[in-house]
Amino acid sequence: CSTDPFPCKSRTTLVRTGRVLVGAGGMTSRAKVVFPVRNTKTGKAGTRRVGGTFRTRTRILVRVPSDAITGAIRVVVPGPHYSKGARVTVVHAPLPAHRAPLPSTGTPGAGAGFFAGSGMWVWYLNRDEGGDPDAIAAKAAAAGVHTIFVKSADGDDVWSQFSRTAVAALKATGLNVCAWQFVYGNDPAGEARAASVAAANGADCFVIDAEGAYEGKYAQAQTYMTDLRAAVGPDFPIALTSFPYINFHGAFPYSVFMAPGNATFNLPQVYWKAIGDSPDVSLATTYLYNRVYGPPVYPLGQAYDGTTATDVQRFRQLSEAYGARGVSWWVWDQASAANWTAIGKDLPSIPAPADPGFPTLSASGSRTGSRGDLVVLAQEHLAGADQSVAVDGDFGPGTARAVRAYQAAKGLTQTGQVDAATWPVLMRETPVEPDWAALADRAKATAKGASASIASVRVGQPRFPAVNGPASASMRARRYEIPRGPLKPR
Asked: Rounded to 5 degrees, what angle do the CA atoms 469, 472, 478 make?
């Protein structure tokens, strides 16, 4: 390991983006070092060949890739000739001493206690212990569950099960009772009215379940959140639950739902078995992309489809190790007896996992160019720092110039990328969110006088064009890691 630019802890402990002097016999100037790496977008492991500065036939100096992971490295020379592998430990590059890292779970606000500890989600109240409040409370207490999340509305349809009487009876047992609503964006004002009924009926907190139906609907999300906040007040605890792999969903308006003053808690749906990953990979990917939005993360875990007790316990331990102050579980009636036992079992704490880092956003002209809501988020914060930048979700040359200017102003290395050193500083800026609803009105007015090929398409309320928001709102999802919409109850 080279001491430039980071001190070496040992000969075989490498620092990402640092340099390493590798020795092997019979090398030429065409020699490369093969590193084990993990794709930060897909979570898949692989290898990467890295060239460097050829010193002698037995020495080459190379830069450690930013996505390198612990494993064996080896030298390859065209021919091909391979050296034996040498195992190395790879660690994250430290932030400069004067830079405070972004807290992994954000800062909890009013109502944090309702999300703390363990919670369980309820779809149909009458299917869980027959809807009997005392039986529900007894089963919850046996598993250490303090909060239940009961469905209160579907779109603008208010569900009678979340009545004032039912909520009062459940709360009388000592349970915290929160409401959740699945939303579509077809009638955001109506959905906000339906959501506010839950608060009036005594909900301790409220969770918005917004998924694939809300992709490309920035104006609707903004209207919904504005109306909802106006109805319940600025301090009522509101959370968002949605897809955990944010990089798969460039058109989803995470930046609207979790804008300052909107949803102040984040409950990503980390259904590791449905996703096809382990609890370790699912949580690492979730934290990589979710924590930059600011609200504290309270992971929503999978207690259905035969998840094992071992995985449930691992998910609990990892979530705590990442700094989560609480977790919840989908869903009451589909959780097996083994799941319930694992949810309530006393577990030892485990060491903190490797820091998942931060997503790297780079210019769209490059092979790894960035588009989507993560770019929207960065652009809004750049605008809040008085940088001249269009909030369009496309990391073009203008955004790259704004990033370099911001980095120069903050004493950061001018990479032109929103990278691990830039995110923690940038997120301290107050974002400037465009008025997406007003822009949608303008687009609709323009479309009235345009040709049919560019006329707006009605989506529920005729106020909104088919796709609104930044240019990236038209993106297709890369993949749906979990099903689109709530899972069907048995």
From this structure: 130
